[in-house]
Amino acid sequence: MIFEYESKIYLGEVALYVADLARQKDFYQRVLGLELLEEDYTQVALGRDGQVLVRLLATSDRQPVVKSAYGLYHLALLLPSRQALADILKHLSESKVPMVGGADHGYSEAIYLEDPEGNGIELYRDKPQDDWDIREDGRIIGVTEALAAQEIYELGQEVQPFSIAEGTRMGHVHLSVKNSRAASHFYQKLLSLEDKFSVPSASWLASGNYHHHLAVNEWGGSHLNHRQPKQLGLAYFEAQVEGKEGLVAIYENALDLQAPVRWISSQELEVTDPDGIAVRMIAPTKVNIENKRVGQKSVIR
Questions:
Q1: What percent helix, strand, coil does the chain show, rounded to 5?
Q2: pTM of this prediction?
């Protein structure tokens, strides 16, 4: 079985350590329109269609700047359509939520913002695959051009009360690392990803025919701190594989890379990369896998 775009991984939740749990919950629930799925005094889980997309974990860490260590550059929520992107752009604009940019990447249209503690967020929609710049060797070339922001804004409709569109999911995760070439090699080996597009300071990696499930960049410089446990910012990001055999293969890859790895349960393991960033790999139940298939694109091998 494979996921959409012939991929062998499916991104799950991104977990963040936060200083102000109530404030962060309000932002992701009220501003971004995610559903509250789980809550207690130590953590909050939010998402869409019953699937957790963002998990907020309370921490006593009070470092002043999230970006003082390697970790999250941004999490990227994939919206199901241009209309859904337009609706959330209209909502954010009329709510006067600060945004840090927008871009047309050739294969997608995206807007960027940060949560109240400085964690980066991308909201994007994919263009039809026929519009992507796919080369004969499988590379998918990305660009950074002006977003048709006014056109998209005018397409937007008022949604009251606001909720993020049905079908929204985690599209990719972009990491801040010390050495992008080394990090690219690490994740290609660990997760059997392919380099879809690279520049000297960044790489975009994917499983199958997608433009990227994971990106790494060294734009923060070489002076940032190694990520520490329970430090503000990225706690871990999660990806699912098709079965236990996939987990065992990743475990063996981690050993080959001499990376710290531990089994959380018989269906979940955690690997820590050279910058201290944790990735959790899960082999979900058959029922959960069935729910993530996309029409006839899912294949049993």
A1: 25, 35, 40
A2: 0.93
